[in-house]
Specification:
single chain, alpha/beta, Rossmann fold, 7-stranded parallel beta sheet, 15 helices, 16% strand
Length: 374
């Protein structure tokens, strides 16, 4: 099978999909309209070709005026995409992220066309303006099949289409990589942790406030908070920690490569994710796979992953007090931590095992390539 994939080659989810498909004998041409800096990730992969349309935009004064971009830069880009598809002769074109790659896929005129919604492309982009909402409706109308990473995001997609061909294909976890590891931990010390982009939507500020409340309420506890990730709010969050007098207890670890995360997460005793919005929550699934008990907000993507009291604890969004009480509960009750950890890993094995997710994706490919109605 041959798949022409429109996606960002630098995105970790793209890398994981391409690698998994190639290992199963699927031939992939990965096309990017962004300049691609080759870091060697795809270098030794069989069945994979990379093509980047690296021409830079020169319309600096009107770069956000959609019709102008469409008639100039995008016209040249679309011509190159069509030529690349014709040369590659794929069975399917698969575009990841609706508002850019999805649009190029729709305009290419190729069928079967599969489009994947990732999150902000359906939660945020169509709400910015009526014209952008029309773009999303157009892309979904032209697609033969739609993929969503979660059921809750599928509901959001259905606000813009009534198309029946929609499948949920999660960004699952490689359980051979994300698993419990033998680590040496400091005795009688509890480490809270989070792996997330440092931006407002992911509630890192709420987590810091919750940690501060717990520290103030239980000063005798030996606790710390490790924040893994980068983002535009890092300086602001570091100031918040300093203003609360917690610079020693809260450490900012920066971005860590995905294959190094299992070792880092295994150092955590409790994983806390308090996002304000979440379409799925891969990091939470990764934490559950390592056997780390989780506390999450009631953002819709999390409530699909976590069963409250069974595979984790769920607290109200933007409620540092309730979050701090849940954190305290797990500090005080080791048996509950162990139970949540065990049940969480079992839930990931049942629903979010990466190998199963990839096979489900390939099944969709086979279905669409043989569907006579497309």
């Amino acid at each position: 099978m041959r798949i022409f994939m429109l996606s960002n080659p630098n995105a970790v989810h793209t890398q994981r999909w391409v690698k998994a498909l190639a290992e199963r004998g699927v031939v992939v041409m990965l096309y990017s309209f962004r300049p691609y800096k080759d870091n060697g990730y795809y270098q030794d992969m069989n069945n994979v070709q990379i093509k980047s349309f690296a021409k830079q935009r020169e319309l600096k004064g009107i770069r956000n005026f959609f019709p102008i971009k469409l008639l100039t830069y995008y016209r040249t880009l679309l011509k190159d995409i069509k030529a690349s598809i014709q040369s590659f002769q794929p069975d399917i074109v698969h575009a990841h992220y609706l508002s850019d790659n999805g649009l190029f896929g729709a305009l290419s005129g190729f069928h079967p066309l599969i489009v994947s919604a990732w999150g902000t492309d359906v939660y945020d982009y169509p709400k910015w303006s009526g014209s952008r909402a029309r773009v999303i409706r157009y892309v979904l109308r032209k697609a033969d099949c739609i993929l969503s990473t979660s059921h809750v995001m599928a509901k959001e997609v259905f606000k813009y289409t009534d198309k029946e061909w929609l499948f949920v294909t999660p960004f699952g976890v490689d359980m051979s990589l994300f698993k419990p590891l033998p680590v040496v931990k400091q005795k009688n010390h509890v480490v809270f942790g989070i792996v997330k982009t440092l931006s407002h939507g992911y509630g890192i500020d709420t987590l810091i406030d919750a940690f501060a409340l717990l520290r103030a309420r239980r000063p005798e506890l030996s606790i710390s908070l490790r924040i893994v990730g980068e983002g535009k709010e890092r300086e602001q969050l570091e100031r918040q920690a300093a203003d609360l007098g917690l610079s020693k207890e809260i450490s900012f670890m920066g971005r860590i490569a995905n294959d190094k995360l299992p070792e880092v997460i295994n150092q955590f005793d409790i994983f806390v994710a308090l996002s304000r919005i979440e379409s799925f929550g891969v990091a939470v699934v990764e934490a559950m796979a390592t056997g780390c008990p989780v506390i999450v907000s009631d953002a819709p993507g999390f409530t699909e992953i976590v069963e409250h009291g069974q595979s984790g604890l769920i607290v109200k969004c933007d409620d540092p007090q309730q979050a701090s009480e849940a954190m305290e509960n797990l500090v005080d009750h080791e048996e509950l931590r162990l139970s949540l950890a065990k049940n969480g890993r079992e839930r990931v094995r049942a629903l979010y095992d990466w190998g199963k997710n990839v096979e489900e994706m390939i099944s969709v490919y086979k279905l669409m390539s043989t569907n006579k109605n497309v």
